[in-house]
UniProtKB/TrEMBL annotation:
The lineage of its organism: Bacteria, Pseudomonadati, Pseudomonadota, Gammaproteobacteria, Vibrionales. This is DUF3293 domain-containing protein. Pfam families: DUF3293 (PF11697).
């Protein structure tokens, strides 16, 4: 995708809202950030998004995880998401199941956007760059 693509810009220009305690408690080197909201970037009603994320949470119940919000700088747009200790391959499998265009991969505090279709990793910054 071209960097001028509005969807790509939306994925890259995000903030992660999570508690400092959750971030401090994280012991792994890697994580996937994933949601089930708005499949293929089609906005759904909030109750539908909550139902989808509840199903995703059930799929993640055997993994260490915590909730976070992924949104724009002001958080007037956001998606409830999960920071989860799962392999990149596992995260991409769930992204396909929940019809997500992309997920985030965190590797030693480096953040990558990963497209579901072609599995392309795009380095987008350090985790601190995405925290308000």
């Amino acid at each position: 995708m071209n960097m001028t693509n509005p969807l790509l810009n939306a994925y890259v220009n995000v903030c992660f809202r999570l508690s400092e305690q959750d971030l401090a408690d994280w012991r792994g080197d890697t994580a996937v950030i994933i949601t089930a909201w708005n499949p293929r970037s089609v906005r759904l009603a909030q109750f539908q998004n909550h139902q989808r994320n509840h199903a995703l949470k059930s799929d993640l119940e055997h993994f260490r995880m915590f909730k976070l919000l992924v949104g724009n700088e002001n958080f007037d747009w956001f998606e409830e998401s999960y920071w989860v200790d799962i392999s990149l391959k596992g995260g991409l499998t769930l992204a396909e199941k929940y019809q997500q265009n992309a997920i985030y991969w965190v590797d030693k505090k480096q953040v990558f956007l990963v497209y579901s279709v072609d599995k392309q990793l795009i380095y987008i910054g350090e985790i601190d760059d995405f925290l308000p």
